[in-house]
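Example 5.3 — D-alanyl-D-alanine carboxypeptidase, family S13
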Amino acid sequence: MYNGLLHMSKIMKKILIAFSIAIFITSCSSYKKTLKKQTDPILSSTFYQNQFTGLLVFDPENRDTLYAYQSKKYFTPASNTKIFTLFASLQLLPDKVPTLKYWQQGKKLYVQGTGDPAALHPYFKDSTALNFLKRHANIELDLNNLEGEKLGQGWAWDDYDYYYQPEMTPMPLYGNVVSISRTKVIPEFFKGNIVRNWHRRNRDLEKNTFYVAPSRRDTVEIPYRTDSVLTKKLLEAALNKNISLGKPAYTPKKETLYGIPTDSLYVRMMHESDNFIAEQLLILASSTLSDTLSGKKARDYVLENYLQDLRQAPRWVDGSGLSRYNLFTPEAMVNVLDKLYQSMARKRLFAIFPENGVSGTLKGWDYDGGVPKLYAKSGSLSNNYCLSGYLITRSGKTLIFSFMNNHYRQPTSEVKKRMQQVLRQVAETY
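Solution (predicted structure tokens):
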């Protein structure tokens, strides 16, 4: 009798499980049909006729694709590239920034840059390296370990004097920009290089002469032209002591000096879409692989060791997304976002991404009633706008999406309006 009841109980349990699965499959199928019915007419409208658009919406809990439209095709991602840079940094960097490498021989301290972008940065104002170097009288800098150009492959050459395109260096100082206000110049080293006069450019192409209109009231940041001698002079001015440049023939095992939390760099990169930090993060990440600093080596290493399962391998040429040579698919973007979602604490992950209506580049993306809630990275170049990240639906589900728009001629505000409509429908439906 008991065995018979036990047998019946097992059968009932199997029936209930099968019934639940059937309801779930039917429910998912219903969601997909509704999303398709709502979204297809928008993406096939005349508005999208002469542009290129891709969208993927994925449920990371049920491992289910809810909607896909040209999601396997390649797009210019703009600053969505920073999602891959974030992923690479999280794989290779420790909790605190490796701010420089050093070793001591006798009374001389040898120092090598790691690419740390925070040293004396206008926002971070990190003095970790400076305070360490102040304790040593005899310092020799090795600034020969950066492999690659100062400006990225495919960057717009005529943006050299804009704040968002500083040069890449092995030991950045002050964010590699000069901050100029009506009363102050940081670093003061460049005070004599400021011309208070209107000019069509902010800086001369090949030299550090900076132009600021006398009527300008705000603080302007202008990238300065870098080289090893200038880095030495800036550091000497900050330390108030002489240092030397060199490349020792023999280098023993180095020690590493650690600075601010790396999460502070990630937040700044993602919230403000800071190109300088993005590029230097890849250089910084490469410092954990070898003494040779190379953003390319970091990218290649991450693709080969952590992202070898991507079904559409990206063309990934920089850390910031400034280059139009970058090519990523919405599917690859969602794949990396999913890896982050599965491996990180939700609170930490969402804090790194801009929140719509609250922070960073999504502060102006708000919805009545607060649905959907987005934690996402935008990316914009002329005629291109992309948005990828996490969407919280009205029912509380977390979805991952990548919505890419390339080569449109309409105002970006109109592109965003339709994106918001689609994402709102996803949030209300699922």
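Remark. Residues 20-26 have pLDDT under 50 and may be disordered.
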